Amino acid sequence: VHFNRVDRIQLATDRLRSRYSWSRPLFGNTASGPRFAMMHSWHRASILLCAGIACTLFTIAGSAPTGAVLGIDLGSDNSVVAIARRKGVDIVSNEGSQRSTPSIISFGHEQRFIGEQGLSQRMSNVKNTVTSPKSLVGRFFQDEDFKRDVLPRAKYELTEGPNGVACAKVTLCGKERVFQPTQLVAMVLQNLKKIAQADHGS
Questions:
Q1: Which of 148, 159, 163, 192 has the most C-beta neighbours closer than 10 Å?
Q2: Dist CA 73 CA 192 (whole Å)
């Protein structure tokens, strides 16, 4: 049976809707309490969009590729990795068997802790743990909106970087370091890539 691009996108969205109903919680409870009550509509839409893009790539290629297509929903608080394979879309679980990964980076005395590991370091290393790195992207330190919305909520130190960009100042391996938002987001994406590779085996 031949499917055109619209049919492929519709098929992927129907599979997701049947697997994760709009009224049912997607994430269950953890040992520390419920992580999410329900998945936000924009979060769900992002995953459906990833499925649509994957199906479009299948059509452009002419046939389903031997590998898989990776989709990432980079969130301010949590991120999700989805892989289009075997005529469907799978939500990838991380090393903690969770289908969402905290967008957190904790800088320690010897190394960085990202995702689930960063979350476990959050309470004991507050000043060197960067949360919601996505919220810093495109922000300038001197902007009134930034000073009102972001600066008071940050538990870590924020400083003005090159061209007035808001940056995070932390201590890594005993040395004071300043990281730009793009660098922080890259660390989160790199961790999500490792999660996908561990699941897919490539």
A1: 192
A2: 10
Could you tell me the two tokens for 159? 């400083």
Q: Are strands 101-102 and 78-85 parallel, antiparallel or unpaired?
A: antiparallel
Name which residue leads in pLDDT, 148 or 12: 148
DSSP H or E run through 106:
strand 104-107
Tell me how crowded residue 107 is: count the other CB atoms within 10 A of its CB. Answer: 25
Q: Between β-strands 129-131 and 166-172, what pairing exists: parallel, antiparallel or unpaired? A: unpaired
Q: How far apart are the first and last CA of the chain?
A: 30
Burial of 80 (0-12, 13-18, 19+ CB in 10 A): buried
**Helix (H) or strand (E) run with residue 175 in it:** strand 175-179
CB 50 within 8 A of CB 84: yes
Residues 181-198 have pLDDT tens digits of 999 999 999 999 999 888
Segment holding 148, helix H or strand E = helix 144-149
Decide: helix, strand or coil at residue 43.
helix
**pTM above the 0.85 mark?**
no
pLDDT digits 0-9 by tens, 93-152: 999 999 999 999 999 998 999 999 999 998 899 999 999 999 999 999 999 999 999 999
CB 187 within 8 A of CB 144: no
DSSP string, 187-199: HHHHHHHHHHHHH
Q: Which two tokens stand for residue 66?
A: 């031997």
